[in-house]
């Protein structure tokens, strides 16, 4: 269990990250604020409490790997990498500018801390599986963590990987589904129903853990449990709210696309995000 | 050609422990020995071309050099988006071996033909393409692919199951097969044998062609441009659709270099065949019968 103080600090950092994301997205008139907000607690927890990484040695062969398979939520990842000191915070001002390296889909572009270029659905999880396999071959006792979108689970390559990773007994692979129940054109259960999602992953021979993806204690327990797996990869089904943290965009799929403007920013200010 | 591939890969894997071979469940009678000798560095990831390519990218991002083997149509089309993003965009040290391209699986029909692979792979920046004509060129392609620190596509065909060259070859340049002054005949892949027969036939009519095998399809070599500049009548031959293949590359080079030459492309027509047949039958149906090529060249020269 996390202490009360730890939780207070994690919540504080989550707020800071949301502020940063809002700033970047508004400045760039960019999209994808809501899917970036739904994974803030997951990323904050991983980068603060789990990942064995060193911003001074971003290519350390003995590091844990994090891959954002839902590459469109990259404003959250850039923000947390800057917070961890992988690069200077002022670089975040370059998000989506002419000639900038920080583009709106996760791209390596020599940016320290970015492990794979993603953005097209269904790539990050199999890339992560390959990296987990490489760790096994090199006998490196580290793990690969991948955040996958729920809509992304429509892709065949996700289920191909579900087969490959369990067949190869990749117990060092931890995938987290950001289950915010929205995909590009509607509710996941209306567009293409994923349920029963837990049973599907269990049937593919993964360890399945279901949690509230905004609750640090639940995230903590899930990740700790994933580390105990003897021979199965782990999938954490994290129930989340798309746009979590800014009331006007919460559970509203318009903000998969729309940039917050005046009316949203007034509310953001009231809620302490500006 | 197949044996040359197996022998080269085995040698490379012996030499370099960073090499991993992955197949999406292809390679019956190809990989049995490699699987036995390198059990930890050989993966059969099942019939999952898409996830397999991304999985291969993950291995390569972790420092391994990966040889991925699948039938040409599946490697170039089924998982094209993965090849584009995970291999080419990342510019990874991954070698894609497309087996049985062209009409190799002549009895199986279009699902198993590799008619478009060069045209498709050619559009991906930074991917080197070799289309070897025989076992010697296959070995040289494999050795060269090892030296290249980036993505490579090697196109294998059953027509290439032959040994034409007597000595080692420089795979990065057009390779002279017959010297002549009546026209330039450029060939990729196993149809080189057919081109030799065409060239021999034409000699009866006092036509002597400058015949070259051109295993390096992309990038194009300076030596190739020099050849184009030195000849007025140019012919190309390939077991690939006429759209976007080797002939198209030559056409572009001619335009880009502002050359006043006549180009005739021998390639597969822009249509699907709906019949079964032997390799010779399919090539004849596609206008690539030896007599048909000979007659066309005769008329032009």
UniProtKB/TrEMBL annotation, chain B:
For this entry, the protein name equals: 1-deoxy-D-xylulose-5-phosphate synthase
Task: Give the EC number(s) listed in the UniProt record.
Answer: 2.2.1.7
Q: What Pfam families has UniProt attached to this entry? A: Transket_pyr, Transketolase_C
Q: Which SMART domains match?
A: Transket_pyr
Cofactor(s), names only, from the UniProt record: thiamine diphosphate; Mg(2+)
Q: Which organism is it from?
A: Candidatus Roizmanbacteria bacterium CG_4_10_14_0_8_um_filter_33_9
Q: Which GO terms describe its cellular component?
A: cytosol
What GO molecular function annotations does the UniProt record carry, in alphabetical order?
A: 1-deoxy-D-xylulose-5-phosphate synthase activity; metal ion binding
Segments passing through the bilayer: none
The residue stretches assigned to a coiled coil in this entry are none
Looking at the record's lineage, which domain of life comes first? Bacteria
> Which EC class, in a word?
transferase
Give, as in the UniProt entry, the pathway in which the protein acts. Answer: Metabolic intermediate biosynthesis; 1-deoxy-D-xylulose 5-phosphate biosynthesis; 1-deoxy-D-xylulose 5-phosphate from D-glyceraldehyde 3-phosphate and pyruvate: step 1/1
Which PANTHER family does this one have?
Answer: 1-D-DEOXYXYLULOSE 5-PHOSPHATE SYNTHASE-RELATED, 1-DEOXY-D-XYLULOSE-5-PHOSPHATE SYNTHASE, CHLOROPLASTIC
Q: Which family does it belong to?
A: Belongs to the transketolase family. DXPS subfamily.
Source lineage:
Bacteria, Candidatus Roizmaniibacteriota
A GO BP annotation? thiamine biosynthetic process
Keywords noted in UniProt? Isoprene biosynthesis, Magnesium, Metal-binding, Thiamine biosynthesis, Thiamine pyrophosphate, Transferase
Transketolase-like pyrimidine-binding domain boundaries = 1-164
Q: Which InterPro entries match?
A: Dxylulose-5-P_synthase, THDP-binding, Transketo_C/PFOR_II, Transketolase-like_Pyr-bd, Transketolase_C
Oligomer status and interactors:
Homodimer.
């Amino acid at each position: 269990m996390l202490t009360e103080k730890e939780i207070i600090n994690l919540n504080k950092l989550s707020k800071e990250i949301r502020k940063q994301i809002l700033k970047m997205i508004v400045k760039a008139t960019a999209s994808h604020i809501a899917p970036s907000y739904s994974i803030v607690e997951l990323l904050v927890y991983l980068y603060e409490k789990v990942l064995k990484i060193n911003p001074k040695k971003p290519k350390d062969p003995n590091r844990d790997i994090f891959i954002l398979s839902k590459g469109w939520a990259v404003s959250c990842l850039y923000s947390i990498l800057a917070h961890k000191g992988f690069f200077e915070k002022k670089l975040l001002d370059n998000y989506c500018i002419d000639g900038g390296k920080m583009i709106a889909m996760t791209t390596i572009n020599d940016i320290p801390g970015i492990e794979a270029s993603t953005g097209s659905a269904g790539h990050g999880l199999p890339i992560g599986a390959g990296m987990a396999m490489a760790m096994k071959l090199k006998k490196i006792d580290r793990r690969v963590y991948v955040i996958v979108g729920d809509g992304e689970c429509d892709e065949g390559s996700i289920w191909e990987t579900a087969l490959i990773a369990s067949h190869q007994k990749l117990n060092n692979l931890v995938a987290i589904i950001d289950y915010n129940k929205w995909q590009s054109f509607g509710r996941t259960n209306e567009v293409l129903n994923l349920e029963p999602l837990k049973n599907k992953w269990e049937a593919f021979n993964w360890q399945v853990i279901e949690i509230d993806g905004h609750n640090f204690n639940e995230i903590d327990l899930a990740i700790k449990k994933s580390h105990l797996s003897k021979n199965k990869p782990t999938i954490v089904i994290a129930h989340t709210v798309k746009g979590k943290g800014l009331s006007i965009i919460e559970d509203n799929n318009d903000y998969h696309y729309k940039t917050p403007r005046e009316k949203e920013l007034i509310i953001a200010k009231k809620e302490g995000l500006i | 050609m197949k044996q040359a591939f197996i022998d080269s890969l085995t040698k490379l894997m012996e030499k370099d422990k960073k090499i991993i071979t992955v197949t999406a469940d292809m390679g019956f009678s190809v990989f049995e020995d490699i699987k036995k000798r390198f059990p930890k560095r050989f993966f059969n990831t099942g019939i999952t071309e898409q996830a397999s390519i991304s999985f291969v990218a993950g291995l390569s991002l972790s420092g391994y050099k990966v040889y991925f083997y699948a039938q040409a149509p599946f490697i170039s089309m089924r998982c094209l988006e993965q090849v584009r993003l995970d291999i080419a965009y990342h510019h990874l040290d991954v070698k894609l071996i497309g087996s049985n391209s062209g009409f190799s699986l002549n009895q199986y029909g279009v699902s198993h033909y590799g008619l478009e692979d060069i045209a498709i792979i050619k559009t991906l920046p930074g991917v080197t393409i070799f289309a070897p004509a025989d076992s010697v060129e296959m070995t040289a392609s494999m050795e060269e692919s090892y030296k290249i620190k980036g993505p490579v596509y090697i196109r294998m065909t059953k027509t290439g199951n032959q040994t034409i060259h007597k000595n080692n070859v420089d795979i990065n340049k057009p390779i002279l097969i017959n010297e002549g002054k009546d026209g330039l005949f450029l060939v990729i892949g196993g149809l080189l044998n057919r081109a030799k027969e065409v060239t021999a036939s034409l000699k009866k009519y006092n036509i002597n062609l400058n015949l070259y095998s051109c295993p390096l399809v992309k990038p194009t070599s300076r030596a190739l441009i020099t050849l184009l500049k030195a000849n007025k009548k140019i012919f190309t031959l390939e077991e690939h659709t006429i759209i976007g293949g080797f002939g198209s590359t030559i056409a572009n080079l001619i335009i880009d270099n502002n050359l006043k030459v006549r180009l005739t492309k021998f390639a597969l027509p822009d249509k699907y065949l709906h019949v079964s047949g032997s390799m010779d039958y399919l090539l004849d149906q596609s206008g690539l019968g030896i007599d048909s090529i000979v007659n066309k060249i005769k008329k032009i020269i």
